[in-house]
Amino acid sequence: MASDLQRVNENEMKAMDANRYATKKTIAQGMLDIALLTANASQLKYILQVGEQHQFYKLMLILISLSIVMQVAAGLLLVIQSLINMHNTKDRNRGFAINHFIDAFIFLSVFCDIMKMNFGLDPAVPHTDVELLKP
């Protein structure tokens, strides 16, 4: 009887650990999403302050704006997805479809972020000293 009780307690602890891990993972992902959104807002502010002087002003403005829109859309879809009852087959299919859209929005957002980093939007690197680098 005592060994049965120990097995039940061990199973409960494993289940609680899994829930704790999932909760921490979700919180960490949310914090990373907020950090990325904050970085994009900061980059948007920077590119708007520099204005047309930036070599790729229009491209950067479009990429940053698209990235922010995709992040917000993915966030809204995540909220909608959390409200879906996954026990119902019809709702589950809807949830899976929404999940595919979320994946696409996140992929496109990351793609925009990679592209904008390749065009040199780094506030730490001054753009006024570019002439010193020319041969």
UniProtKB/TrEMBL annotation:
<keyword id="KW-0472">Membrane</keyword>
<protein>
    <submittedName>
        <fullName>Ninjurin-2 isoform X3</fullName>
    </submittedName>
</protein>
<dbReference type="GO" id="GO:0042246">
    <property type="term" value="P:tissue regeneration"/>
</dbReference>
<keyword id="KW-0812">Transmembrane</keyword>
<dbReference type="Pfam" id="PF04923">
    <property type="entry name" value="Ninjurin"/>
</dbReference>
<feature type="transmembrane region" description="Helical">
    <location>
        <begin position="59"/>
        <end position="84"/>
    </location>
</feature>
<dbReference type="GO" id="GO:0016020">
    <property type="term" value="C:membrane"/>
</dbReference>
<dbReference type="InterPro" id="IPR007007">
    <property type="entry name" value="Ninjurin"/>
</dbReference>
<feature type="transmembrane region" description="Helical">
    <location>
        <begin position="96"/>
        <end position="114"/>
    </location>
</feature>
<keyword id="KW-0130">Cell adhesion</keyword>
<comment type="similarity">
    <text>Belongs to the ninjurin family.</text>
</comment>
<keyword id="KW-1133">Transmembrane helix</keyword>
<dbReference type="GO" id="GO:0007155">
    <property type="term" value="P:cell adhesion"/>
</dbReference>
